[in-house]
Design brief:
Blueprint lengths: L1 E3 L1 H17 L19 H16 L6 H9 L9 E8 L4 H20 L3 E5 L6 H8 L5 E10 L27
Antiparallel strand pairs: 1-2, 2-4, 3-4
Helix pairs in contact: 1-5
């Protein structure tokens, strides 16, 4: 885990933004976050969240320039004062990734307990080579994601986004209750 603030965070953000705007096709994730073909109901759910967010931000369907700019805000850690980059040893298997998810969630819960807000960000994985170079990450580690840490700007429209939740009975099998 790499925790960044100040000039180091700014320099990393600047380098990633340069790649995001000038050479995005030269970069790719080392692992698949999403399946190659997203099936239903996941595709519709993902799209709905995206369009709900864009709606709050006044970004209309087809406005790829504004969509690209909004996506770029990831690389500024959404203006949070602290940015975190998470890595895992390359030799770890799926079970360790599951444990890592618990680790990330514990950080998010602990932050809320302290009155802070977080945003986990898979978007950073695409620019792992830039991140590795800027932070001196050894070859034995793989970038998993980033996370923003700070106080939410409650006046920002994106912080009004409330995503729909699937009813529990649609995905839980209660047995012998």
């Amino acid at each position: 885990m790499y925790v960044l603030a100040g000039k180091k965070k700014t320099n990393l953000s600047t380098a990633i933004l340069d790649a995001h705007y000038n050479s995005p096709d030269d970069h790719a994730e080392e692992y698949n976050y999403y399946p190659a073909r997203i099936t239903e109901p996941y595709l519709s759910r993902r799209r709905k969240v995206g369009w709900d967010l864009y709606g709050l931000l006044g970004i209309e369907k087809g406005d790829t320039e504004k969509m690209h700019a909004q996506h770029a805000r990831n690389y500024l850690f959404f203006d949070a004062p602290v940015g975190m980059i998470f890595t895992i040893e390359r030799n770890m298997e799926v079970g360790s990734w599951l444990d890592y998810g618990s680790f990330l969630q514990n950080i998010m819960i602990a932050a809320r307990g302290l009155g802070l807000h977080t945003c986990p960000q898979a978007a950073f994985a695409k620019y792992h080579a830039i991140i590795e170079d800027h932070l001196g990450i050894p070859e034995s580690e793989m970038v998993i994601c980033g996370m923003s840490l700070g106080y939410a700007d409650l006046a920002a429209p994106e912080n009004d986004l409330v995503t729909e939740r699937e009813p529990v009975q649609n995905f839980v099998n209660f047995i012998d209750f």
